[in-house]
Each structure stands twice: as structure tokens, then as C-alpha cells.
Amino acid sequence: MDYDFKMKAIAERTKVEDLFEYEGCKVGRGTYGHVYKARRSTKSDPKDYALKQIEGTGISMSACREIALLRELKHSNVIHLQGVFLSHVDRKVWLLFDYAEHDLWLFSKLCFIGK
User: Are 88 and 13 in contact (CB under 8 A)?
Assistant: First the structure.
């Protein structure tokens, strides 16, 4: 690949760190990574988001399957995948979701406590 083209593409690529604030806001751990509560850096959008950082470097087949399925699923009971960010500096993959206050893990624990 042409070095100049590569450097230009990296400079123009949207970075998750520039768009969202998430430092110190870890809310959980997903199947393949860590999940952070995030807000847009511009403060123009008061909505909360969930940023999932896929573990490891690069992208695994499991992560590819997860992304492909989430892009296709459109249902009110399935969390919506807003976008995918690739960080070439540290070779990380980030998934942007709508934020949900609770997850299935919490509900499954509550169901067992009530019995």
C-alpha cells in the first residue's frame, strides 16, 4: 500500500476517542470485550451510549460474526448497533450501541433470587 495514502487515510479516519468521552466509565464486560458508558464529546447530544472495546488486537472471527449479526438485526428487543470504529494506532475495534441501564445478566440473577 502507498505510504502517503495510508497516512492520509489514518489522519482522515474518524476516531472514537475524538467523538466520545468514556474514560473511567466502565460498566461491564461483554463476551468479547469491555463495555463503557459514553457521551458525545461535543455535548450536543445528551444521550448515553455504550462503547464496547473488542479484546485483543485485530478482529477475530467471533467478533466478525457478532458485528454481522448485529448489523442485520432490527428488533425492539435487541440493542441497536450504531456504528463500528477501527483504531489503527492500537489495532482495536470499537462497537457503538444505544445504552441500556440493565442487561440480561442482571435480570437472570434477579430471577434466581426471587425463587
Answer: yes
The CA–CA distances, whole Å, from 50 to 16, 25, 28, 29, 111 equal: 12, 10, 10, 11, 25
pTM summary value: 0.75
**Among 72, 29, 71, which residue's Cα sits nearest to residue 52?**
29
CA 80, CA 23: separation in Å to the nearest integer? 22
Residues contributing to the annotated binding site for ATP: 52
Q: Are 51 and 34 in contact (CB under 8 A)?
A: no
> How confident is the model over 9-55, as pLDDT tens digits?
777 777 788 888 887 888 888 677 889 999 998 888 889 999 999 88
For residue 1, give the C-alpha cell. 500500500
Closest CA to 13 of 93, 109, 94, 87: 87
Tell me how far apart the alpha carbons of residues 67 and 63 are, in angstroms, rounded to a whole number. 6
- CA-nearest of 98, 97, 94, 74 to 84 is 94
And the C-alpha cell for 56?
Answer: 485483543
